Amino acid sequence: MKTQAALLVDLGKPLVLAEVELPALKPGQVLVEIAYSGACGTQVMEWLGHKGEDKWLPHCIGHEGSGTVLECGSAITRVKAGDKVVLSWIRGGGAEAGGATYQWDGRTVNAGGVTTLQRHAVVSENRLTKLPDNHPIWTAKFRLPPNKPFELYGISEGCKWVVIYSPQAITGYWEANQFEKGNGKIAFELGANIIAYATGLEPPKYKGTEPPIYHGEGQKADKRGYLKVAQLKLPGGPPAPNAMRNLMAETRKLGFDVMLDTQSIDVTVDEDVLSHNFFYMHGREQFNYTTADLKDLRFKLEDNGTLLADACCGSTKFDESFHKFIDELFDHKLKLEPIPTDKDELLFSAKLNPEKLDSNNIRCRREAGKPYANMTPALQGIKFEGRWIVIYSKYDLGCALENKPSPECVGYDHDSAVKLARAAVLYHLNR
Fold it and tell me: Which of 107, 136, 267, 321 has its CA 20 to 30 Å from the CA of residue 218?
């Protein structure tokens, strides 16, 4: 099959409108018929040659657009043929398949994970997003018919939809204050739902409150003696890639020597595992390892290491996989058990933390769409020779650490997640 595409062939010269041959779909790739495409500043700078040498010429361009899925390769779990989707350079959930290559008059044309200035595009699944009928935005405040009369598209980043777009005009109803009946009433109720979703059903902070913003250090070498987190790679990538960086920044405020940037590692690669002591797991999809795969991780945990893990937004698929993971990790000899919250437990105590962690200062959303409520910390763990070497929460910590509240996310609020995850770090450092 052939399609038209705008190609960047020479920097600073007009794009070439060419007919290119579409490649066969690889696992994780999706064929999309493009309806609309944007042109972002980054692509303009690239076309003008202001971003330096371009070793990928000739190549397709376009980072943002919308369209309809025509065909899916294998290993696709989030979209299907016929779905209307938004395409974005921002990675979301789903498979990462890398770029595609097209053929044009005997030449190879390169393309990144997503390109949109063409009639049809082969893209990686994790660059596509759709707003499903069961998305909480339809019920966050008012119960509305999904995508009727206003269709919504979105772009997700990690655990939350950060861009919501409607091809139909909504704001005109707001401007005209038509809120009493018909589409105007739905437009106002949908606006209320979007606000409820954006705020996570939480009231605004006091005026003047500044949210914490953490930046990576960009250090070329680790500092000797500093704690650095190793995040275990899982299918679909990390839903909350900045969670540990934010946590380390909070830990550093207490005067501890920690690296802000984390390292993503493969748990089956011994040199990666054996060079770290503190590990983090966070995901929403199913995963599977064998006892042999995990021998080095077990060695490190039993040798004064610590594993902190949580289920992204309370994912039951991850929770089930994690329990099987623990069985394999400890060769079916140890089981997760509730970590007690009595006065003798160091993990939640004021001896370890700035304050005792209990129902007075811990809040959790235990059901999607419900508000946070105070509760006693609910963590599970594996104890080895008198020390917790695995600390696990079936309620979300990672997304909350990124401070992007979403009413669909089952888990702790931001402040509670900081306290509980930081307690795990302090417990590790106290070993």
Answer: 267
